[in-house]
Amino acid sequence: MSPSGVTEQKRRLRARSEQVLRMAAMDDVARRYPRRTVPSALSDEGPFWRFVFVPLYRRVPWEFKARAMRKLKMTAQGWPEQSRRFGEPWRPPAPSASRSDPE
Amino acid sequence: MSERLIVIGGGGAGTAASTIAKRANPDMRVGVFSEFPDIAYSPCGIPYAHGREIPEFQNLFLSTVQRYVEDGLEMHMETTVTDIDLDRRTVTARNKHEGFDKLILCTGFHWEQPAVPGANLEGLHYVKDIRRAMEFDKELDSMKRAVVIGGMWLGVEMSGALARRGLEVQFIDEGPWLLSELVDPDVAEPAQEALEKLGVNVRMGTKLLGFEGGAGGRVRAVSTSGGELECDVAVICLHKLPNTSLAESIGLSLGTTGAVVVDDHMRTSAPGVWAAGDVVEVPHGLSMLPITGLTGSHAYSQGRVAGANAAGEDRVYDPVWIPWGFMSGDYTIGGFSIGETLAEAMGIPYVVAKGVGVSRARYFPGAARTHVKLLAEPGTLRLIGAQLHGGEGIKERCDFLAFVGKRGATLEDLAWMENIYSPPIGALYEPIQIAAQNGLAEQRAREREAVPA
Lengths: 103, 453
What we know:
The complex is a heterodimer. By secondary structure, chain A is mostly helical. In chain A, 51% of the residues lie in helices and 0% in strands. The longest helix of chain A is centred in the first third of the chain and has 30 residues, at 3-32. Chain A is globular and about 45 Å long. By secondary structure, chain B is an alpha/beta fold. Chain B has three domains: 4-110 and 240-310, 3-Layer(bba) Sandwich (FAD/NAD(P)-binding domain), CATH 3.50.50.60; 124-236, 3-Layer(bba) Sandwich (FAD/NAD(P)-binding domain); 330-450, 3-Layer(bba) Sandwich (FAD/NAD(P)-binding domain). A five-stranded parallel beta sheet of chain B has the order 3-2-1-7-19. Chain B has a five-stranded parallel beta sheet with strand order 9-16-10-11-12. In chain B, strands 22-23-26-25-24 form a five-stranded antiparallel beta sheet. Chain B has helices at residues 12-24, 46-50, 65-70, 130-140, 153-164, 185-197, 245-249, 296-310, 340-346, 394-406, 411-415, 431-450; strands at residues 4-8, 29-33, 74-76, 81-85, 90-93, 96-99, 102-105, 109-111, 124-125, 145-149, 168-172, 201-203, 208-213, 219-224, 227-230, 233-236, 240-242, 260-261, 273-275, 280-283, 290-291, 323-328, 331-337, 351-358, 369-376, 383-390. Chain B is globular. The chains are: A mainly alpha, B alpha/beta. Chains A and B meet through α1 and α3 of A and α6, β20 and α9 of B.
């Protein structure tokens, strides 16, 4: 697959996973506010996503997912680390990234 | 010979990039290429001009092309760049090659189009170019019925504006509540009520099935899961998609959002090429995941950083915490970062702190209820998001919360913050404090329950 094909596949995968996670979250939040919501008409992405992907994703704690996303380079590259990771006490922001200018 | 910078795009990012580059390095030759005839106008004001809250479209123009020329910029208006050659350092426009040393891409976005039958009919309107908006505004005088499609902020603004203009407006969206991709149901409810008060018929949970054509190939109705809705115009307000065709043609790296990857200096993967605005993705400060399709103020700030760096400065753009806010009818909603729905979707644990206060002393005429919902990390109680609704002061509170959230403030900090008390402009007890105090009280109650007697 060409590099642009890989990029497109990654984009689609992310869009689809976000869509199913958002839909599942909307269902849960709607149950908390039943008076204020109606049944969604958003397209279902299929049983795999709803019954396998969503429950699996939810079983993994956020700290682990965040670490995995960093390791797999799903987070933004070329940016300084967050001033503080999830759950850490606050500290001053790190100085700007000292990358050499590519020019 | 002085260096030449070419900026492609004349929107918020392109305008800021070119102006700042020239200011930072007056010897640099700066050329701007835009496919449109106008520059420095406010596209965000377009719905309000349709609704006549802004009396004239001319009020949206903040400057002229001539003014930029007088400031020393080479302005190439209505000139589409069709090709870039990175090896020869040239762009091609109108079959003419123009050389550059440095390049900033600010090619913006296009609107997502609905993938349904009839999406190519006449009478489907997308809000973007001001000239088209001015033509559309004249057509509105002879229209009676509009269907607005899509539950993003622009759809809400356009629905309110067209209702103010006297049109019969149907608003449709597939989501289970208004703005369900952005806000939680408790914040959506008053926003929806405010739209309905203007006469908008809000149809949530309604799927778009297609557009029905009439005379001359013009849309006459919108087909939905809730039936057919007759209309004179359909206004489409779906997602913003980055315009990356030029970026792709020169092999710039694209990210998982489909937008151009940049670093914290707005540098792309190609040496000497920067990018800014709706064509790029930048990290969310909480998760560091790249996101795109942000606001005009983000585009403007990114353009300033790209322009300064292209001119030889060393400016850093921070990950974003996205303060946002807008009017739904006469009601204001806003927030920053994430709400309950997005936190649930991402699987980010959170505790909620809610409170209701007033925008000025409660005895002072015009005092409005201000609803505040704060999201914080369990344990540390660090602020990770907020959603607010009410009247005056929502925007300022969202800006403030985004800033202190970025700097790591906790519910404890907010519960004991200082605030201005002056009857016409602020109440004794700040609504943010009330929410944070309530959150702390609930935390203490939970902790007491958790300790065995």
